[in-house]
């Protein structure tokens, strides 16, 4: 693996510690899906026909997304910073009898991958764990061929600032300080970054991408939201998109 930046050791340690319980929590089905909120490719239509494409999944975790793409005929490479997540992904790919190539790299330093290798880069709910998102986008731009596409989802930054208990804002939309939580049982710290939509688009532009679409999938009504999230204040939280999906071309 390329050298891990000391700031990223924390993400690696957290995910190595959390991987087993994260994967056993359930809900991680093999699907071409960008996360919660009706955000399957069938609803979003952002990827098109992936058959025959060279595709990289960045922050692949268990690679449920990448395996589903491979089942559709894509040549898939999965990249993750966590050895435990990659080991789970490898086992899952074998279980589903698909060939996926796995690389242990940080998405901010894809130095094990040559430039111009992929037609498509996808990522689901990984980039909020990455401090240097600019470096991540620059690396995605480098490993994509000209005209290639990056499609990724993160938590919607507006959804994350609402406190469902108090119905108030937990913090300002403009406050970009990360959310931190130390776990004694994991002996590791979770650090999650939140960026506004404008900042994310600016970072994509700085890396040479043109944003082609932004999707904010959500729920038509509180019952649908509750079916996915349980009784987590559905009347309030169903009013905001939980997920934001960006599609950008290089
Ligand atoms: C919430 S999981 C999402 C995994 C998968 N995409 C999914 O939808 O289940 C976030 C993943 O990002 C990975 N990750 C965090 N920081 C990373 C980095 N700098 N480089 C590569 N992977 C990273 C973690 O190891 C973890 O597997």
Automatic annotation (TrEMBL):
Pfam families for the chain: Methyltransf_11
Taxonomic lineage: Archaea, Methanobacteriati, Methanobacteriota, Stenosarchaea group, Halobacteria
Database matches in InterPro entries: Methyltransf_11 (IPR013216), SAM-dependent_MTases_sf (IPR029063)
Domain of life: Archaea
Name of the protein in its database record: Putative methyltransferase
A GO BP entry: methylation
Keywords: Methyltransferase, Transferase
Organism: Halococcus salifodinae DSM 8989
Location of the Methyltransferase type domain: 57-152
